[in-house]
Design a protein that fits this description.
This protein is an alpha/beta fold. The chain is 35% helix and 21% strand. The protein has a seven-stranded parallel beta sheet, with helices on both faces.
């Protein structure tokens, strides 16, 4: 009998968006997908719930923007609600209810998931926040998240240190994912020419 795969929801910008978070999602989803060890579900900010663009992905994908006319009308009435909708606040509960994941991973600035840890499902599954935290001091939102989330992932060593100085031991360091296939060794001639260009500009 084959072992049931863990179901992981990855929530951030759609993996085809030309943004930093979009590229993170692309690299991470592509990397995990090649091993076929997990059931991956992309929860894509910037796309509507059943956007046709999401139907032909290598993994299951939902958009985080609502499609219901009443919600769309409600959201249009307020800039704050439009911002909330763009981070998936109106549909994340529906996604969790429908998919019942083992792991929820939010890859987002902390204000994008602010208060998610108050949701009823947050501590019933393995909820993780992977946030850049690229400046200090830590915000109250950061410490509130760390107090209420099993695992926080940051991309900078100084951020991990700042959390640890506040007594948190559930914060882990994992830098930005990259596609190593884009890296290659330059030829000897190319390296010589590059050094000449650097010398020319005083680099």
């Amino acid at each position: 009998m084959s072992k049931k795969k863990k179901k992981i929801v990855l929530h951030s910008n759609h993996c085809r968006m030309k943004t930093g978070f979009g590229k993170h999602m692309k690299h991470l989803l592509t990397y995990l997908h090649q091993f076929n060890n997990y059931e991956l579900i992309e929860f894509a900010n910037g796309k509507q719930w059943k956007d046709p663009d999401l139907q032909n992905m290598p993994w299951k994908a939902y958009g985080s923007l609502p499609f219901e006319p009443n919600l769309i009308h409600e959201i249009k009435a307020s800039k704050e609600k439009q911002r909330s909708a763009s981070y998936g606040r109106y549909k994340v509960d529906d996604l969790i209810k429908e998919e019942k994941p083992d792991v929820y991973l939010a890859i987002e600035d902390i204000w994008g998931v602010d208060g998610f840890w108050k949701k009823k499902w947050w501590k019933k599954i393995n909820s993780i926040i992977w946030s850049p935290v690229d400046s200090l001091p830590l915000l109250d939102k950061h410490t509130n998240a760390a107090e209420n989330t099993q695992n926080i992932i940051v991309q900078a060593s100084f951020a991990k240190k700042a959390f640890e100085e506040k007594g948190f031991n559930n914060v882990h360091l994992l830098p930005v994912p990259i596609d190593t296939s884009n890296f290659y060794r330059l030829t000897d001639t190319e390296r010589v020419n590059l050094r000449k260009e650097q010398a020319r500009y005083g680099a």
